[in-house]
Specification:
Layout lengths: L11 E7 L18 E8 L2 H14 L5 E7 L8 H8 L8 E8 L2 E8 L2 H14 L5 E8 H12 L15 H16 L5 E6 L6 H21 L7 E7 L10 H7 L2 E5 L2
Parallel strand pairs: 2-3, 5-6, 7-8
Antiparallel strand pairs: 1-2, 1-4, 4-5, 7-9
Helix pairs in contact: 1-2, 4-5
Length: 264
């Protein structure tokens, strides 16, 4: 989860939650990924504002997740700005994954991934309700189902092609992955599982190994285009999840595929 509160001509903050993976044996208040750190930067008008904001974040997440890099002084805050920031930093923001929250004076923007449409509307609605009419709220949150739909629409039932019997991409396969990169970047690099599939021809275990190697090739290609490798899991399903009959050449061609699944 990334939460940003940016500095402006007036007071502002930048909160960044960086995924460090499941380490330290720590379980935060649900549901941020275990091991996330919330790095708080920006400028606030006084020490009282800094103290209240950090205390609020420590309550929303847990104290050990918060890295305080706030600066104090040199800015003029809008009326009741600190109290309004604390209202924005409500418990709902912890349900945003790979998100970004910008508070720039009286402008608030939030984006990222949430589990469903109801959660998307609830978080943005709670923020808007907590603030007065001088604030504007831009809801860029995306429900997981919508993000998956965009991935599926980009793939459009096409097959990422490899050279026969190998994990080497063909030029057409690379071109299709370039399209997927564009969508993944637009979705703010969500956590994705890449699943390799084969048809049923040949030895099952060899097919599982090939499907995994192809999924790893896709992961490497995406990473080479700037997609964070830590946000990509791979799985080799071999011939076990066909989408068409293996009795025909056309069916086998459909079964030799790469699947992109958004992870919750």
């Amino acid at each position: 989860m990334i939460v940003r509160i940016k500095s402006a001509l007036t007071a502002g903050l930048l909160l960044t939650a960086t995924s460090l993976g499941a380490q330290q044996g720590h379980t935060p208040k649900p549901p941020p990924e275990a091991g996330d750190k919330v790095v708080v930067t920006g400028t606030v008008p006084d020490e009282a504002a800094r103290t209240s904001i950090i205390a609020r974040l420590r309550d929303v997440y847990t104290p050990e997740l918060i890295v305080d890099r706030l600066e104090v002084g040199g800015v003029i805050a809008p009326p009741n700005w600190s109290a309004n920031v604390n209202r924005v930093l409500g418990a709902g923001i912890r349900y945003v994954r790979q998100g970004q929250l910008d508070i720039n004076g009286t402008q608030v923007a939030i984006k990222g991934h949430v589990a469903n449409e109801a959660r998307r509307q609830q978080i943005a609605g709670d923020i808007a309700t907590a603030l007065n009419s001088t604030y504007t709220v831009d809801n860029g949150l995306m429900a997981a189902g919508r993000a998956q739909t965009l991935l599926d629409q980009t793939l459009a039932d096409r097959v990422v092609e490899f050279e026969s019997g190998s994990a080497i991409l063909t030029p057409a396969g690379a071109n299709l992955l370039d399209e997927m990169v564009t969508t993944i970047v637009a979705l703010e690099n969500p956590q994705i599982q890449i699943v390799g599939h084969t048809d049923s021809s040949g030895n099952r275990m060899a097919n599982i190994a090939l499907s995994l190697a192809r999924a790893e090739t896709v992961k490497g290609y995406l990473a080479s285009k700037g997609i964070t490798a830590a946000g990509i899991d791979v799985l080799g399903a071999g011939p076990d999840r066909p989408v068409a009959s293996n009795e025909t050449p056309a069916g086998r061609a459909k079964n030799r595929r790469i699947e992109f699944r958004l992870q919750e």
